[in-house]
């Protein structure tokens, strides 16, 4: 999969701060992500989902149940303008429907929905398409953070009637009871938590119609800009992916995008990446796919990815993954 979606630094900053509290240096957490200190100092920095997931994978390697802890720390104030719009909504239902309308601003990797089941409402996280090895982590992070948002909006904990997960109970399932405080079901058919329908009509203590209207409009504009950037970056990735065996270079790509090399370089910088970083990411994704699915010799894979020498490909793959191509093969 090509990770064309952009996201904010919210989750990455949360990971770093959480482990900083535990005395862990950020270098190990950022390893391989291409994110540096300068990126972290800019509030408008946008990173790819792939970069975010690399940091999360490093975090899970250090602490398997970190998704539950990160979700607990992801308060509504972490979502900037969207968080303010949610806080000033008239009811909990209004706030949740607004959040689900803008998944790009929410930064979720799931299709979130509110599903009625008699007198219960299930907040469901579905359609996960990222790294399968991080599925449990992302489900934990998503559902716990959504529960925290509900608690923050109400000003008190939202009583849950149940929570279910489509994977076996982990060996730290006791931590789930702390986060959800309700009956738990594992090996279920979906990932969701339930609450009484009546809570959707609950007025919020910080509701303000005028402020909410202004914030909701700003969210709409921000979402339009954000998704436009995603589409633009997706087009670049599509062009590069189709010509990995003979990459066009920055100027060649700019010509294909109908802009100058200077403009393309500036736009990529604004998105927190560079031509070479995008090319490397696409080559890495394709290399992993070919190594796992094909029986091609290493030198043929190197040629398909545009490397003139097999040794150059081997060095690059070690830099990307930490292991040689032959070791990566199943």
TrEMBL record:
GO terms for molecular function: DNA-binding transcription factor activity; transcription cis-regulatory region binding. PROSITE patterns: HTH_ARAC_FAMILY_2 (PS01124). It comes from the Bacteria. Residues 234-330 form the HTH araC/xylS-type domain. GO terms for cellular component: cytosol. Keywords: DNA-binding, Transcription, Transcription regulation. InterPro entries: AraC-type_N, Homeodomain-like_sf, HTH_AraC. PANTHER family: HTH-TYPE TRANSCRIPTIONAL REGULATOR GADX, HTH-TYPE TRANSCRIPTIONAL REGULATOR VQSM. This is Ornithine utilization regulator. It comes from Pseudomonas chlororaphis.
